[in-house]
Amino acid sequence: MTKTQSGDMEDPTEVGNSNHSTSMCGSYENLPNHEVVIVMVPFLAQGHLNQLLQLSCLISSLYHLPVYYVGSVTLNRQARLRANALNPSDIAKIHFHDIPIPEFSSPPPVLRKFPLHHKPLWDASLLQRDPIASFLRDISSKSRRVIVVHDLLMSYSVQDVSSLPNVESIIFNCISAFNSYCSSFLFSGMSVQLGEELLKKLPPLEGTLPDEFNSFIALQRLYMDIRSGDIHNTSNLIEGEFLDLLAQVDSKQQWVIGPILPTKLNHISNRNNICLEWLNKQSPRSVLYISFGTSTTFSDREVMELAMGLEQSKQKFIWMLREADRGDIFIGEARKFELPEGFEERVKGVGLVLREWAPQPEILAHSSTGGFMSHCGWNSFLESITMGVPIAAWPMHGDQPNNGFLVTEMLKIGLIVREWDKHEELVSASTIENVVRKLMASEEGDAIRKRAEELGEAIRRSTEKGGSSRIELDSFIAHITR
């Protein structure tokens, strides 16, 4: 295995997928004929790539339907490389179709919480309309029906679906129904239906997204009406009330099929990973996992405060310390964060600092993990809740403040690290210490953990045969194969 410049490890499943890749550079003549084919079109960011690859594997392995995963060479490689917890044999069944993307700049992350350094990548995605349309025209000529499952943020790029009579598009929602509900109602001037006390605590929309990204979303919304329905990667057990409210204002068909991530990790390919070996030596539910995803970079001062807070808490921890992804994760040198002098030596045996890509689902599923300090991105939210792990919520931008509110105020399976109205302020080491102690070493934390474990068990059952989410997925498959 070789290491990329981003610190990720090359995955051997890439080799196994070489026979299932097609490219715009070659001819379409060898594309097979299909009765029904599914084409996945993800948005060009890790959390979005990951969810549609999970759905691809789920549909391909359970229903034996042909699935094409469409993206640039680099992003398809990234999706395969970071396919945490997915069975390599399932990934090998997916047809990765490489389409061109214009050259774009890939600057290093800036010291702000929203990844505005990805704007050149968003702009480049708008120029993928023609190659996507070309692929769809060709594959639709060889199939009775083509189902395009695409990220909402790729609505502009798949708009030519409307000109192809046997092609149907479905939006895959990569964010929570609660966030979609709050955002759409507040933007349209309607009141959010929550109790009076909860409404007082609901995070405001201001400061969650920069104007540049709001403009990008507005462009995508112009092309959403061509879809025939929506898939939601969530569960009625988590946010059924808000899924019902969304359905009242949208006539499109809805399928609630989540969480789509693997819940039985019997095929872990990296059992010898250093953090899993370390976890094997710890007591049950004793370790706090800390990670803030792929779109946030902390300042040196924030890293120092977090390090001191963790050390002072005297609780076991695994800390994934990485900067935000570049637009192209395979170029550039990763920033080296400075920790307090002697920190790693002092916490030896108590804490583990990781600087490379970590097997997050496996960490959260491990019996030694008892808490997760998280930015509350939707992938991390679902992985933690599905595995029954409570969250110390520290939202940074976008949908994350609403996700943090959902987990702490509504589901009652987490604690807030910093209220959203103070998101511009530095979080002190003492604040971090207190939250960690409360979650990991108090009666209140134990009660939260018990609720999280009970909800996780119910969610996992819902994804199995006969469960509510599996029934919804069966319904979706029946719709597209009708």
Automatic annotation (TrEMBL):
One of its GO terms (biological process) is glycoside biosynthetic process. It comes from the Eukaryota. It holds the Pfam family UDPGT. Residues 1-24 are annotated as: Disordered. One of its GO terms (molecular function) is UDP-glucosyltransferase activity. It is an enzyme of class 2 (transferase). The keyword Glycosyltransferase applies. Transmembrane segments: none annotated. Residues 15-24 have a biased composition (Polar residues). Its EC number is 2.4.1.-. CDD domains: GT1_Gtf-like. PROSITE patterns: UDPGT. InterPro entries: Glyco_transf_N, UDP_glucos_trans, UDP_glycos_trans_CS. Residues 35-262 form the Glycosyltransferase N-terminal domain. Gene3D superfamilies: Glycogen Phosphorylase B. Belongs to the UDP-glycosyltransferase family. This is Glycosyltransferase. It comes from Solanum tuberosum (Potato). The lineage of its organism: Eukaryota, Viridiplantae, Streptophyta, Embryophyta, Tracheophyta.
